[in-house]
Amino acid sequence: MTEHHAHHHDEHHACSHCSPSGIYLFSPSGAIAEPERVRLACERLNALGFKTEVDVDALAVHQRFAGTDEQRLAAIDRSMRQPQDIVLATRGGYGISRLLHQVNWQALADSGKRYVGFSDFTAFSLALLAQTGAVSYSGPTAVAYFGADEPDELTTEMFGEAMRGELELFSFEAPDADPVDEHGVLWGGNLAMVVSLLGTPYFPQVNHGILFLEDVGEAPYRIERMLTQLLHAGVLARQKAILLGAFTEYRQSSDGYDLAVVVQWLRSHVNVPVICGLPYGHTDVMVTLPVGKQVGVATEDGLAYLVIDEHQH
C-alpha cells in the first residue's frame, strides 16, 4: 500500500510547469521486442497531457541492442538537442555500460533535459550524477509501464506528478523499518548496475546519502554478495539510510536462505537504518525518484515517508 500527496505549488513555483511538458522516447539499451508497445505508450502519455516524439532509431535492432553503439550514442546526442523537456527510455535490458566513456556528460547536464528510466538506465543516472552532479529520474520505462496491457494507475499518477513538480511526499508501509529522520542525497537504482560501476569514474561518491536499491532475477545469496561488495568498499557505512525496493523473479532455494535472512545480515553489519518496502523495482507499482536530489526520509508507526520536495511556507 502506497500513499502519496501531491500539493500544487503556489503561483511562484508553478510557472515553470504551466504548460504540459513534452516527452522524447529513446532506446539507449536493449532492442524492443514488440514495437506496437511504443505506440501504445505514446497514446497513454498523450492522454496524461504529454506531447510525445519518438527517436528515429528507437526501434533499431543490432544483436541484443536497440542499434549499434554508434546508433545509440547518436540517439543520446539527439535527445539533448530536440525540443521536448523530458527524455524517457523505452526500456532497460543491457547496453548503457558500453557507452559510458563515449558520452558527453557535461553537455547532457547543460541541456537541462529531465532523463527518466530504471534498471539498465541506473548506469546512465549514476554516471550523470558522478560526472556532473545533475539530477535525473529513476522511474517507469515507456514499454513496460505505459505500453503495458493495463498500466498501473498509481505508477502513472506518480510519474505525472513527479514530472510536473507536484510529487512532494509519499509514504509506504514499512512495518520493520529502523527508526530514522534524516536528509541526504537520494541515489541508487538497480543493485547489479550500482555494483558494476564501483571503482569507475561513473560511480558517484555520495556521503551521508540515502541509497535506494532493487533487483530482478537475482537469488538472495547473489543480492547479499553484491551488498557485501558495497559494504567492503565502504559505501554502505557512508549513508544515512538504505531503502530496499522490490527484489523479484528469483527462484527460492529450499535451504531457508531467503531475502529476510539477507536483510537481517545487512542490519547486523551496518550501523545505518534499513527500510524495506519502497514501491520501486520490477513491480507493478513504481514511484518516480529524483536521483541526485536532496530529500528527507523518516519512519513512524510502521510507515516510511520520503519527502521529495520541501517548501518553506
From TrEMBL:
Record CDD domains: Peptidase_S66 (cd07025)
Superkingdom: Bacteria
The name this protein goes by in its record: LD-carboxypeptidase
Protein family according to the UniProt entry: Belongs to the peptidase S66 family.
Boundaries of every LD-carboxypeptidase N-terminal domain copy: 23-139
Keyword annotations from UniProtKB, A to Z: Carboxypeptidase, Hydrolase, Protease, Serine protease
Organism, as annotated: Alcaligenes endophyticus
Database matches in SUPFAM superfamilies: Class I glutamine amidotransferase-like, LD-carboxypeptidase A C-terminal domain-like
Ranges of residues in domain LD-carboxypeptidase C-terminal: 184-295
